[in-house]
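hey can u run this one w/ S-adenosyl-L-homocysteine bound, need the structure tokens asap thx
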Amino acid sequence: MSIPEPAPPGWDEAYARGAAPWDIGRPQAAFVRLADSGLLRGRVLDSGCGTGEHALLAAARGADAVGIDISPLAIERARGKAADRGLTARFEVGDVLSLGQLGMTFDTVIDSGVFHVFDDDARARYVTSLASALRSGGTCYLMCFSDRQPGDSGPRRVRQDELRAAFSDGWTVASIAGEMFELNPGLGITTARAWLATIRRL
Ligand code: SAH
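ok here u go:
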């Protein structure tokens, strides 16, 4: 899978600084609840996996998990965690805006804090890319910062209607629920209001 040249700056640096706000060393509670309900199943893609906690969560529950991230440092750390924990998950450096290049299709996609990093143009490309990687009838679980989160530190806020508009063609938005992101203290907050969207590929 090719990544843009040069690789977008920032992500590797964020991981090199350590304790990036989202990189809490465990999966987000919202995704643990999905796993507990048996929903992270089959071939699972952790899109923009960072240091791999959600792919590893799925792998620990028996899924065939793949994590893709543009940061080589994050992928190196994810592979290290898999080895340390004795879990089998595949981690690759790659661009989630070009998932078709993977030549793989998945039953389930996890997006924890990735959709909200993209600007409008990249957002549209991302949705097309996800459509190329998720099988018909497959499910994407997407958690993003919500417009109900006050202040402006951290990523762009997303409204429910933006989620519905982004996934209006070829998808069904089955539900959007209020959730919380757990964060390291770097942003001055340790939780943030989020939306957890359950989105099915038609
Ligand atoms: N899902 C992880 C990381 C969220 S932070 C977690 O929950 O901890 C957003 C992640 O998206 C970062 O790891 C960043 O490196 C990755 N990312 C940003 N743009 C990307 C792209 N175009 N392709 C792949 N990964 C990307």
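The pocket of S-adenosyl-L-homocysteine is lined by residues 11, 22-23, 48-50, 53, 68-71, 74, 95-97, 112-114, 117 (CB under 6 Å). anyway lmk if its weird
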